[in-house]
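Figure 3 (text version): structure tokens given as input.
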């Protein structure tokens, strides 16, 4: 969460403003649109469901009237019990055929079945050829029933998928069971009649019995789009509704409910059971309730586009007159590296941005002036510091050196006296040369040899100094008196306290654009506490053994002051093993420094 807040805080003012307005627009228009569209969709849904309820009620009235019509036909047939007598077969067939012709859109097959199982049909020739295995079943059931009954849907060789209406016939004289009258209705015609006003692109219907059997029939004459909403099993012909879907529909409550169809969610409107024992269910595609409110979508979309356009104009104005000048100011500030060149802004206008630009220009002028004064003071400070360091020739060093010369003179070692005096003069001349504070590495090493010679005169063979300088490094630039304080430190603190001879090795090399100098001794070494205290020598009184007042800390500061903080000393030491000092300087030719000066 903190990372997310930090990331958002790094955004510019323009981005935050645009995000705020966009989110505000989204919440306002989105919320308003969602509420209005939901209300409109709800109103339309209620209207459609109400209309569906009316259609279903009317369909149920039609189905009840259909039942009444079938009952009337059966009653008329039952009054002609004489048609079941022997010798009446032709008359019975003619009567059945006449009834069937009068209602050919409703009835598919009519039968008269005697108690003995003899069957007379309106299509007697067809029946004699293909028969109907359901007739004996209906006869058996009728003997156990005292009134008319309606079968569950079944497949008939005579009528296809059908439902049979069966009425037992009794003898008027004996009141004994004499046979049955059977009407097989045309479910395809019945389905087509209802489909005329219920099957559309977005709606369809189903008729299911109270025993979860499908009544309506599949009509191959209808387009497949009429059956796309419901999950039909197309592996058989004619296709049948999926059994699982039928179970779900049967369990739906009366009224409107939601169910999943083959292509998405559906709204199912289920009627109560009619006289036939059937449920009529109308199905509406869920998207159907939204297609008539597209104009509302367009209105809200137009308003949203217009508002986004206003947001973009507002954002552009902020970017043009506020953000861009601020970013220009930030870019100018980021490019400030060298204060020798003033980076000013073109200030126009008297608004807040104009006043900010003028204040920035005034601030840069003050900073430039202060830096110039600071650089001049720093230059004078470095100049006087070098003069002070060069003048700090320790009197103890001169006293000790002169005492050594006096001792050599008493021993009549004239050559040693002459060489020592010559070396001392050269060392003092090198130290007091105030023309420049930069020398070549060759000159610095020569001064170091003179210093080491004087110390060897004093201490004899207590130490040896070895110099291994790469030829390409001798012409490089180095600050005067950089190596002498480090070698001096190695002699007096590392080797003199030893009871054996010590060695100081100096190596120089160039690595890429750096001059690397290492000073290694095999003296006493130091622990971490002593090593850390070396960089505090500046604040201590100079040792009486020092040639000058320049200590290790002073060398480090001088290198950082002249070459930058990325250059300087690295010291590694281990007690009883010795000390290694690594010096990193820029590999610059001395001639280039002189030309620059």
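Below: residues designed for each position.
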């Amino acid at each position: 969460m903190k990372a997310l807040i930090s990331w958002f805080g790094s955004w510019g003012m323009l981005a935050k403003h645009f995000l705020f307005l966009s989110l505000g627009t989204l919440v306002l228009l989105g919320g308003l649109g969602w509420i209005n569209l939901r209300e409109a969709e709800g109103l339309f849904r209620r209207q459609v469901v109400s209309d569906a309820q009316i259609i279903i009620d009317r369909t149920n009235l039609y189905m009840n009237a259909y039942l009444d019509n079938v009952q009337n036909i059966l009653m008329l047939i039952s009054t002609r019990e004489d048609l079941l007598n022997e010798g009446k077969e032709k008359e019975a067939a003619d009567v059945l055929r006449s009834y069937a012709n009068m209602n050919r859109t409703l009835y598919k097959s009519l039968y008269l079945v005697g108690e003995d199982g003899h069957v007379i049909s309106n299509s007697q020739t067809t029946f004699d050829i293909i028969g109907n295995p359901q007739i004996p079943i209906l006869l058996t059931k009728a003997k156990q029933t005292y009134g008319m009954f309606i079968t569950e849907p079944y497949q008939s060789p005579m009528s296809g998928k059908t439902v049979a209406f069966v009425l037992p016939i009794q003898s008027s004289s004996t009141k004994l069971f004499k046979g049955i009258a059977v009407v097989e209705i045309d479910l395809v015609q019945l389905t087509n009649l209802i489909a005329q006003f219920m099957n559309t692109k977005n709606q369809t219907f189903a008729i299911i019995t109270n025993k979860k059997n499908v009544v309506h029939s599949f009509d191959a004459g209808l387009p497949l789009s009429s059956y796309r909403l419901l999950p039909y099993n197309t592996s058989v012909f004619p296709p049948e509704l999926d059994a699982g879907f039928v179970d779900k529909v049967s369990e739906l409550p009366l009224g409107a409910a939601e169910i999943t169809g083959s292509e998405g969610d559906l709204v199912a409107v289920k009627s109560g059971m009619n006289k036939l024992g059937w449920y009529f269910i109308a199905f509406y595609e869920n998207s159907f309730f939204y297609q008539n409110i597209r104009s509302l979508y367009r209105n809200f979309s137009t308003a949203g586009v217009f508002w986004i356009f206003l947001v973009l104009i507002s954002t552009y104005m902020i970017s043009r007159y506020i953000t861009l000048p601020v970013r220009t100011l930030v870019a100018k500030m980021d490019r400030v590296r060298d204060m020798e060149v003033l980076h000013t802004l073109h200030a126009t206008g008297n608004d807040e941005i104009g006043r900010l630009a003028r204040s920035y220009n005034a601030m840069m002028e003050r900073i430039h002036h202060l830096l110039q004064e600071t650089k001049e003071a720093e230059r004078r400070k470095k100049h006087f510091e070098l003069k002070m360091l060069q003048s700090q020739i320790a009197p103890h060093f001169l006293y000790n050196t002169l005492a050594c010369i006096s001792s050599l003179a008493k021993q009549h070692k004239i050559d040693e006296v002459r060489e020592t005096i010559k070396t001392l003069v050269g060392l003092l001349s090198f130290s007091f040369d105030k023309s420049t504070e930069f020398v070549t590495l060759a000159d610095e090493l020569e001064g170091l040899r003179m210093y080491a010679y004087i110390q060897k005169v004093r201490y004899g063979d207590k130490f040896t100094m070895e110099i291994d300088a790469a030829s390409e490094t001798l012409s490089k630039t180095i600050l005067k008196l950089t190596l002498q304080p480090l070698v001096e430190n190695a002699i007096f603190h590392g080797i003199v306290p030893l009871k054996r001879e010590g060695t100081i090795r100096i190596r120089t090399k160039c690595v890429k654009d750096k001059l690397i100098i290492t000073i290694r001794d095999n003296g006493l070494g130091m622990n971490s506490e002593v090593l850390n205290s070396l960089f505090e020598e500046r604040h201590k009184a100079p040792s009486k053994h020092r040639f000058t007042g320049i200590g290790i800390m002073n060398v480090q500061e001088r290198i950082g002051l002249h070459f930058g903080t990325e250059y300087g000393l690295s010291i590694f030491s281990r007690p009883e093993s010795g000390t290694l000092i690594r010096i990193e300087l820029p590999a610059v030719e001395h001639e280039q420094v002189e030309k620059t000066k």
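The chain has a mean pLDDT of 79.
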